Structures are given as structure tokens and as C-alpha cells.
Amino acid sequence: MGGDGILGVGDIERIKEAASGRRRWLKRRERWLVVLGVVLHAIYMLSIFDIYFKTPIVHGMDPVTPRFKAPAKRLVLMVADGLRADKFFEPDSDGNYRAPFLRSIMKKQGRWGVSHARPPTESRPGHVAIIAGFYEDPSAVTKGWKANPVEFDSVFNRSRHTFAFGSPDIVPIFCSALPHSTWNSYPHEFEDFATGLDASFLDEWSFDQFQSLLNSSNKDPELKQLLLQDNLVIFLHLLGCDSNGHAHRPYSSIYLNNVKVVDRIAENVYNLIEDFFKDNQTAFIFTADHGMSDKGSHGDGHPSNTDTPLVVWGAGIKHPKPISGSNHSDCGFRFVDEHMHDAPTPIEWGLNDLERVDVNQADIAPLMSTLLGSPCPVNSVGNLPLDYINMTEADEVEAVLANTKQVLNQFLRKSKIKQSNSLNFKPFKPLAHFSSILDQIEDLITVKDYDTAMKLSQNLRGLALEGLHYFQTYDWLMLMTVVTLGYIGWMVYLVLHVLQNYTSLPETMFRKERAVHLRNNTGKVYLCGCLLIGVLCFLLFLEHSPPLYHAYTAMTIFLWTQIFSQYQFLKGLWRHLCQSRYDYIIKLLATCAVSVFILEFLVNSFTERKLYTWYFLVVGVVASVFLFKSIPWRSGIPIFVWVTCWFLSVFTLMPAEIPDNNQLVIASGVMVVMIGIAAKMLDMHTERNKYWLYILNHDRQKHRFPMLFYIQELLVGLASLMVLLSTSHRTQKQELLPVHQLINWSIAGISMVLPLFSESGLLSRLTSIFLGFAPAFLLLSIGYEAVFYGALALVLIAWILFENTLLYLSKVKMSSASMRSMEGKVILDNDDRCLQLFDVRIPLIFLVLFNVAFFGTGNFASIASFEISSVYRFITIFSPFLMAALLIFKLFIPFLLVICVFSAITKLIQIPRFGCYFLVILFSDVMTIHFFFLVRNTGSWMEIGNSISHFGIVSAQVVFVLLLFAITNIYTRDIQTRSVLPSSRKAL
Description:
Mean pLDDT is 86; it is low at 1-7, 326-332, 512-519, 815-827, 860-866 and 979-988. Strands 4-3-5-1-6-7-2-8 form an 8-stranded mixed β-sheet, sandwiched between helices. The relative contact order is 0.09. It is 58% helix and 5% strand. The protein is mainly alpha-helical.
């Protein structure tokens, strides 16, 4: 060894070469982890469709032929789309009831009640429940909720012939592929009510079609003969109430008058049928698919949407029954909309003297089948409501038994399918001896013990329904366990990567273990992992499991194999924790607890934006108090942090649907200009202030573009002027000229390029980025979101000042002795220091601000219902893709600001940015697991969709954040700061 000093020239070269090799290895490993994370999240995102959104419909069951005489030859089903129960039953302001004919039926001829719909309370699933007897197929999410993806049986299928008239959105669902049907629907153009016309003419259209059918039969012997057959179904879909409810609200006179229209149609249909057939062999059912909220919408589980009227009369129907104390008992039963059984009837309905028979909506299908004496739809899960049917006791038992066997057949089919594909089949034990129960029921019927037979049949039906749910969720435990273990394995793998490559632990404690680890036994771990993957995938293959089941399993085992391959490091880490001081363990646990609390706060913020208001109110006080105690108040930093946090807290109290206020947008432009001027003055005139030292201009040489700042300020002013100009044109109904649009595009495009030529000092560059995106954001703003842009920027500056203060305080406390003791373990390559426990605040604060940028002015849901003025300044011709792209870009701008500041802070305090990125992904996946268990497959389409989107948004952050990092790196890569630790102290 020769040369100057302790190390020779050759040693120094070898050390440099080793350091360069480690940097290359680390970059390859970072790229590998990113690719692995993208693949993992893509695969696991699909798991929710295998767990929550598998169709409950099975095929291959034989229909159950009833063993009783049909009570009716034909059945008329009238569905008033969107008719609320309360608006149907209650009187008007003059005390007159809106449905006098159907009310007379309830009092003299038939039975009545409330049909309880299950969310989503929409037209297609509502009609499927009524006619086919099952609720929304969750796999319809793959069709955008627009169609049932799996074929199903219905009452219409089991009829001799079905006549149907109504909406083109409903009638074809059941009749388009049905050969024994005669149907017609009006054109889609009839449903355009932008002009506010009364839509009750659609109901009249359906009735007119039916009346024409009967009139035509007088000239068509073949049609006449068909109409005189038994097992006929006549379906009239009456859309008027739904359309008028959407257009005018259910309290409007038009909607309430439509109730009278459907009542009059029901009376006319009844009279037509009775005059035509003259045999009293027709059963009539009048109901609705869903209700209507006060806002003119439907879909959720509010009683105004789930409670619909049900009136049944005619052949085979019981007559009204006076109410008595014994009619109502609290049996604890709940309907599918969670309403209690035997809920009290409102006094204003005036029906308290008559027995009310409520049903679940799917119960109507077996009711119709029983009245016609036809088999129940094979996919039905409805329970036959006996209180409506007028049958002998023996026939009642036979009807319930037929209903039970139909549900039981579905259970047996699902059980057979699962058993044929399972190596370790676990049967549904309560129905292990179902055949003996059926034999017992048959014996009881033979000896005419109808009460016992009825109870056994109903109990068996209830067990069959439980069995259906059992097999629908049969794979849930396995899949959710595999996916959850996969996410946990990914997070553990990330923690190990961060500890090994971005902290001082490997250098100080595990040098020997690492050497042993590289030499020994990792091959055995990989071999065991490969064998386990092979065995489990082979077992899944034998069970005919879908390909994605193999992917979930293989990915999870692969991750845990990677973890166990580092068992030497894990052993050393455990020894380190066991030997650590008690106060360090307390700090570690406290950090974990605070992190989990913040992450759970973020999970809840997805459904409650106002939580951010409380967060910033509290953080503003806590951060400013900490700064007051640490630095003199005359620096202005504590007050600034307090005020900016409280200012930002206001925005999450504002409505997500942003109201137009162009004056506020123009004022925001002035605010942006003032923030830019203040930042420029700060950068130029506080060079000697030690609390601002590290964020000011790094290079005091004359800049090659001295006028750049003034050009950017001018562009912001021009953008505000163009907002004023375009607003005045639109107010005066004048067309926005192409030259105006060209100016707007030019201002937005040029301003986003200028930050690339700004000074490289931290505050200078961030100010330039802020001013660079401001014109585009202002031109795309319509209200208070423009102010939010400035408020978010002020909070980001406050974050920088807070970190800068911590940096100054750490330098003051750091003695020269401690500096020497840190050599060899605190500094990583590229002058980055190692991550420390307190550094977890950086990714946590980033996640909070990242989510605030998302929820501060609403969320992605607002894209579906945006104001045209949001893009009017760039494009006036309808172009959905370009408009959507502009709106998404507008939403991305706050994200870009947050990530630019995040990157700048990692440079300021000299911590590895990729280490922080992996911590961001780690914390995001804690939220992902929570959202994974919050995914819903019941409820309104919006509730189901939101649960999927929340899970998807957080899962996609591994890609989304990385993509934004790559974009913002263009702006932040050459930012320079005054390093607290000079490069001469870099550990080799």
C-alpha cells in the first residue's frame, strides 16, 4: 500500500468503484421494486371482483312443477316506475286521496301493503326483483350497471305467453329473447324531457297499446284464441312518475297528478279485462320498482326510495281483513331494506283499520307464479307471501313446499358445483340431511298435519337461503386471507428494503450477518418457495380455479419467500430491538401509533371531507406553538404557519359542487401575483436571516434570464384578464373568438415551460413552478377552487419553513464531536443522509397534503357533472375526451405542486427521495388494506362504485405518485440547497 495519507491511491479507487457499483445495484433494485409494486397492485386490485362481485346466478336446475290448481288463468302486472308509497297512500292538501280506484280495491276487494326494495333502488334491478325474484347481480358492475351479465329465468319465461308494453329500457330485458311474447316499446326519444313536459303521456301510451291489442283480437281469431288461454301474463310498464320525479321532484303538482293518472289507468285496465274475458279469472298486481327522493333521485336505501306501494286483487286473492291486536307482533324480522316487520302505518294514510301485509320486493315473483300455477323462476330467492293468496290449507302447504324446493334446488346446484371442484369440500352442515326433512314434510302432508308441514317447509326454505349465501361466500376466507397476506408481505418487504438501503442499521450492526447471508442458505429458501408455489398452484388447477387465483397465491408466496430469504437480517434486527433502550422502543411504538392514527384519519376523510378542517385547525396551533418555543417570534414563521393552516381549513367546509364566481377567480389571480412578489422579496432581501438560510437563492451570480419572474407575473395577470373577457362574452351570450382561445392556450402552455429556465435556488424554483401552473389553473377555474390554489401553496411554503427550522435547530444542536461520530454511518451516496425514525413525518405530511389536493375542492366525481364554463375558455365545441382531459389536468395541478415541494424538501434535509417514496407506498398500502375490507357489493350503485373507486385510487398510488414524480422531476432535479453537511464529509 502506498500513497499519501492512510489510504493509498489504489484503495481509494477501489472504494470509489465499490460505491459506484452499489449505486448501480441500488438503482436496479429500486426499478425492480417499482415494477413489482405495479404488477402486485394490478393483480390484487382484480381480487375484489373474484371476492365481492361474482354472480349468484347458477344454471342447470329443473323447475318445480306445483301440485295445486292455478287460482287464476291470467295475471296483469302494472309497475308504476318511481312511485313513492307515501305519495300513493296519503291524501292531497284538500283531503282527497290521489288513487281513489286502487283505494276502493284495498278496502273492498283485495290486499295491500308496502313492497320493500333493496338498494340499488334503480329500474333494472327493481324490475328483475319483481319479475325474476332475485336482487341486483353484483357482477353487473362489469357491464357498468347497464345490463344483467348472466341470463336468468323469470315469471315471463314460465308463462304460456306474455304481453308487455312500456319503456325501451325495461321491456326488452325480459322479452327481447322470449319467443312466446308480444311486446312493444316507445322510442328512446320519448324519454327526453329537457323541455319540462309532463311525462304521463308515456303511461297513456302503454295503456293505448294494450287496448289496441284487445281491439285487434276481435279481427284476429288466432290472437283471440291466444288471449283465451291460461297462464298468460300482461305487463304494463308505466314510466311517467319516474320521469316527472326526476324532472320536477316528487312534491311537484305534475308528479302528484301522475299518481292520479296511473290510478285511472289501473281502473281502465281492470274494466277492459273484465269486459273482455267476463270470467273473474284474472289476478291484478299494482306496484312500483322503487320510490323517489325529495331531490328527484333514487338509488340508495332511504325509505323514500325503498318503500313502494303494493295492491293485489282478483282471482285467488284474499279479501280485506280488518285489523286486530293479534295482527301485529314484533317478531324481530327485518326486510331487505332493514325496515322492521310490522312497522306502524302512518295515520294520514287512513288505512289503520285494514291489515297491512308488507313483503320484500323479490317475494312478488313467487306470488305471481303461484297465482298462475306455474313453476317459480329457478333463480328466485323470494318467499311466497301467503297472506295475499286465497287457497285451501292443503294448497297453501303445497305452494310453500314448491317455493322451498325451488330455492333448495339452487342450493343443491351450487353445492354440487363447488363439491366437484373442491379437494377439501366443506358442506353446509344444517342441510346435511335435507332429504329426510323433505320426506318428513311429505309424510305430514299425507296425514294432513298441515301446520307442522308448513313450519318445516318454511324452516327448510330459510336454511336453503342461508346455504346460498354460504356458497356465494365460500371462497371469501381463502381469497381475503391470501390477498391480505400479500399486502402485508409487500409492506414488510418494503420496510426491509428501506432499512437495508436508506438507514444506518446495515452498516452499524449487520456487516457480518450480511456476509453470511450472501453465502449461505438463501437458495434453500427460494427452493422451498418455488416448491410451495408449484404445489398450491397444482392443487388450484385440480380444483379448476380461475387463473387469477393462481396469480394471487403465487404473488403472496413469492413476497414471503423474498422476506424469509433475508432471515439473517431479520434475526439481527430482532436482536437490535431486544438490546435497544426502553425509551427507543417507546418512541418506535409511539411513531407507529401516530402513523396508524393519521392513516385511519385519511381513510375516513374519503367519506367526510370536513375532517381536514379539524386537522388543519389543530396542526396550525400545534406547529406554531412548537415554533414559538424553538425560534424567536420576530422571525414571523410561527404566525405564518398558524394563519396558512387555518386559511386552508376553510375549503373542506365548502360544497364539492363548485358554484360559479368568476370575480373570485379574478381576485385569486391578484392573490397569486402578490404571493409571487412576496416570495421574490423574501429570496432577495433575507440573505442574512439564519432561519431562512437554506431555502434562499443558492447561486448569487447574475441569472441569464433576469426578466423571467416579471414575465411569469405578467402571464398570471393576462390569465386573469382573459377570465374576465371570456366571462363577459358568455354573460352577453357572445361567442368566444378563436383568437381568444388561442391566447388562452398560449398563456397556459408558455407559462408551464418557463419554470425550467428559472433560478435553481429552492424558493426561487418553487415560486416559478407555482407561477407557471397558475395561469392554466385560473383559466380552468369557475369559483373558489382558484383561491384554494393559492391557499395550498401558502401551506406548502409553511411546510418548507417548518422543515427549514428543524434543519437549523438540528445544526445548532450538532456538536463537532457528534459530527465526527456520525461519519461512516449517517451519510449515504449522493450526499444524502440516512433516514431516521423522525423522518416518517415527511411521507405522512405528504400523504395528508396529497389527499387535501384531491379533496380540497371536491373529488373526481365532479368530472361527471362539471360546469361547461370550466373548459369554455379553451374549447367551445363539445369534445368529451378533450374536455375530460382538461378537467383531469386541472385536478392534477395541485398534486404537481405538492410533489414538487416534497422533492424539494428531500433535497433540503438531504434524505433519499426513493426511500421516502417507498414509505409513501407503504403507508398507502395500510390504507389499501382498510379499503379492501370496505368494498361493498350491496347498496346503491353510487355506494358500491365509491367503495370500488376508493380502493382503486389508493391501490393506484404506486403508479400515480411515481408518474407524478417523473413529471415533476423535470422541474425539481436541478434545485440546489445549502447543504448542512458538506460533501467532504461523505462516507465512503
